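Exam revision sheet. Question 4 asks you to relate a sequence to its structure. Input first:
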Amino acid sequence: MLLEKINQLGESHGHLRRGTGMVSGVVALTLALLCFLGVLAFHFPQYLTTPQLRKSYDVQTLRSVMYWAMVIAGSTALLNVVFGRVRWLSFAAFTLVALTLALGGHKVPVNDFPDHTPYIGLDWFILDLLGSTLIFIFIEKLFPLRRQQPVFRAEWQCDLHHFIVNHMVVGFILLATNLLVHQLFGWAVKDGVQAWVQDLPFPVALFLIVLVADLVQYWTHRAYHEVPALWRLHAVHHSVKSMDWLAGSRQHILELVLTRTLVLAPIFVLGFSKEVIDTYIVIVGFQAVFNHANVDVRLGPLGYLLVTPNFHHWHHSQDQEALDRNYAAHFAFLDHLFGTAVKADRKWPRDYGVLGDYVPVGFWKQLKFPFTWKG
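Answer key, structure tokens:
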């Protein structure tokens, strides 16, 4: 009965009724689930954590985050049980917290372990999901574009599946892109050019890396729209009908590998410093989510320079004046320069998705779509 109710909740969409304990219950269950996954990552770091991330984060900070997440999830679930609100949901959250504690909770020791093992990016999934929900749902509620759009809008399950899979197979993606970049573009590396790039002042180097990456992104993105074989992949991303922080996760894994390879190629060839690349990754990560978000944010004249949610929402529109427009990921002036910027008499588009709505809903169906579509 409990699993059936949780399954029904996972398959539903719409607003959560306030005052019933549903909102706090879902928050408690989500935190409890992330804590449970976190304790598994502590037990099996060699298989469940990303080597690149291990070197970046502080384990003690993660232990503190897990501790407080368990406290919030457990106390919220307990209060809901005491006040008789959605007890089945609260019981599920409390059970997960108890399992996490039984497995050692935030105190699980992490001893030495082999570094070169096959892995899935469970830590990357946990941190990104927790950070994204805390930051972007808050921003969407603070500056909403479509006020009536719920957090759990239609088809959110499909986009969450894309989010999970694309994060879990981060090892495969990194391995594939690094291999392709080195194999295809290793010949272009010039020590003198790399030395010159690494001597640039940090702000100049940061501007250059974003500009170079966005130029590649622009023409790659344009090719996805203009080359039929590539559109088969990219149509999956465009099939989302509601824009929010999760919408950008809907992306075919082959497109993800191909785009990352092409964008990383000039970064590899030019030899930017680690500090510049790390800052660029932060910028990319934020813009990729923020520009899909359900937020009413425009920058006035700066909107001609930088890509904003308003600019990118038009790219996802079915409206006739928006088809095959607004390709840039960072600098909007590229579309104005190349003549592909949207010209519309309205501030925001009406409808989103693929014109004709021919892309199926569901992760596995969308994974197969480019190879089965008869269009």
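Marking note for examiners. The mean pLDDT is 92.
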